[in-house]
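Handout, section 4.2: multi-component inputs.
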Amino acid sequence: MLPVLQLGPFAVQTYPLALVLAGWLALAVGARAAKWLGLDGDHIYNAGLYGLLAGVIAGRLAHVLAFWPAYRSQPLEIFGFNTTAFLLWPAIFGAVAVAGWYIYQRKLPLVALLDAFAPGLLAGFAVAAIGALLTGRNPGAPANLPWSVTLWGIDRHPVQAYEAIAFAAVAAYVLRLIRLGSRGGGPALIALLGYGFTLWFVEAFRSTDVTARVLGSLRLGQVLGLVLVIAALLGLRYLATRVKAVDPQEL
Amino acid sequence: MSRLRWDILILVVLLAGIGWIWVNRVPTGEAVAAAGSLPAAPAIGHPAPEIVLANTEGQSFSLADLRGTPVVLNFWATWCPPCRAELPEFQAASERLAGQVAIIGVNQGETPADVQAFASQLDLTFEIPLDVEMEASRRYQVRSLPTTFFIDRSGVIRQMQVGPLTEATLSQQLRSVYP
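Output:
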């Protein structure tokens, strides 16, 4: 396990570093995909960076509101560099809202941008999963396999590695589809299908210590994954039958 | 592919998906039982490794004696600026939560005289075990200071923080073990 990387006199926390790298890779891959789709790759960077900034501000503001008595006595901490003083869901909401606003203001083609973002997001998730593996976050269930990783004396599924491999493979496949001319939402839906399938399948190998549950005993990740898979298939069905419906050969 | 084939595909995937979810469901109570059967380790969900050290007054401190009380276990040193910045927050929390949460500040690798002088300077009154030989630090794999573990009443680590805590983030992390 490598929770901290020692770089000379500096100790850098591995997981936050992995998240930074994941974000950079997501934007870089998204920008490349955007070019192949005939879009200006700078829009990916701009939307991503504006969204990141908005997410940081929203996450911090939410934390300040949630813990206002503490911030009231230490108002300078509102602007502090504490990397844990954020709330996740407000940050995500803020990031998506501002990125969406940027796309709306510039009147950018939403479907094409989603096609471009999709493989980038998956590549970023793959890097984040590697960071989780290095730091022992969200570990796998106990398993005695040749490829098990030993964590605190227990051999476990390297479930984070399963995720990283799956996300990277789907990202590569989606990029290949884009290079071959796939457009119109198909790449984004394939990415969603791959992401959902990974969640649905891989979560079964996660340790029950870190597994969120719904309806008492069902793994939340698996349920969410299946919902995303069905949603993606419905979307692909719509695209496939819509195209078929307007096929001029049938007129 | 025709609409009918798509519908059949989606139905098959849905049924297979539900089946895989059902097969891998977590029996109720298994997660609670699992935490008790894990080996002690400085990791979330694991029982906290035992610490037995002398404090600044030469008295013995044992983490196991605090079973039944939530514990905030902080590793620090006088030469560490972020540690010095957060210690007043731990002092305030120990006063505010006296009798409800145990604030423990394990000093890493320094002499009793140096630590006592420093504690007097900052008016620190919470328990300060002295990890002179760095044994506890090795057991908790403390690679960077400050590092803080939040341990629940049953002795299981629920949160970890590498880096300094502010009043707000301390309140946030405390929620994992208290009330």
